[in-house]
Amino acid sequence: MSIPIPLPLLADVSTEIGKHWSIGPNPKAGALVGNVLHLDTMLSTLLVALVLFALAFFVRRKLTSDVPGGLQNFVEFVLEFVIDTAKGQIGEERARVIAPLAFTLALFVFLSNMVGLIPTGGLFKSPTADMNTTFALALTVIGYVEVKSFRARRFKGFFKHFVTPPLLAPILVVEELSKPVTLALRLFGNIASGEIMLVIVASAPIWLQFVLAPTWSFIWVGFSIFVGAVQAFVFVMLTIAYYGIGTETEGH
Q1: Cα angle 17, 20, 24; round to 5
Q2: What is the pLDDT along the chain (252 residues), one digit of tens a residue?
Q3: Domain contains 7
Q4: Which range marks the domain in which residue 238 is found?
Q5: Per the domain annotation, does 10 fall within a domain?
Q6: pTM of this structure
Q7: DSSP string spanning 198-211?
Q8: How many structural domains does the chain have?
């Protein structure tokens, strides 16, 4: 015997999915400038940016070469982890170059993944649950990598890796063009699906919410934090890997 799904639940879920899958015009009512700007995403991104600016300000203000405080310890731990991980993939010299971008991406993506867990009644959502944000991040990363690759390999070496070997040239070009797409969709899919699940539970019948309430908050929030951290890590590792491949000059 199947359990009927209430129509309001289906409507809420379909609206939420449509909102997350929108690129460009925002289907959510209340968007600015002819219903084009994603106000919820913009507010959430601004919130993350303010947190990062505040973090940088306080760390810079309290920076010391003596016994560091907890916040400086945290920042140094993350930065050293990024640098050490990059060293193992691309060597110390290039790791020092990519470390500032990778470190910033790690913090921004992780905090963005966490915003959707804040109970604000829909005012804020994870910026990374919006494909406009993930594609912007992916295009920024790939654009940076291509510029660094061109500088490292020069004109001849840069274009040579697209046609070597010649028979694989179409595949190599498609592979390069697919990088921002896969980078963006991987992050978007994992974060957006979590927020859609939250909507499903919140829109469920009262009796079902009562049954799920005792365990849902702890289990799902903990799982969401874990997934958010993993996705931030994956995004940063792929950024380092793409940079390493793009700036490899041996054989070029």
Answers
A1: 130
A2: 333 444 444 444 445 555 555 555 455 544 444 455 677 788 889 999 999 999 888 888 877 777 777 777 888 888 888 888 888 888 888 998 999 999 999 999 999 998 887 776 667 788 998 888 999 999 999 999 999 988 888 877 777 777 677 777 788 788 888 999 999 999 998 888 877 776 666 666 665 556 665 566 667 777 888 888 999 999 999 999 999 988 887 655
A3: no
A4: 35-246
A5: no
A6: 0.78
A7: HHHHHTS-HHHHHH
A8: 1
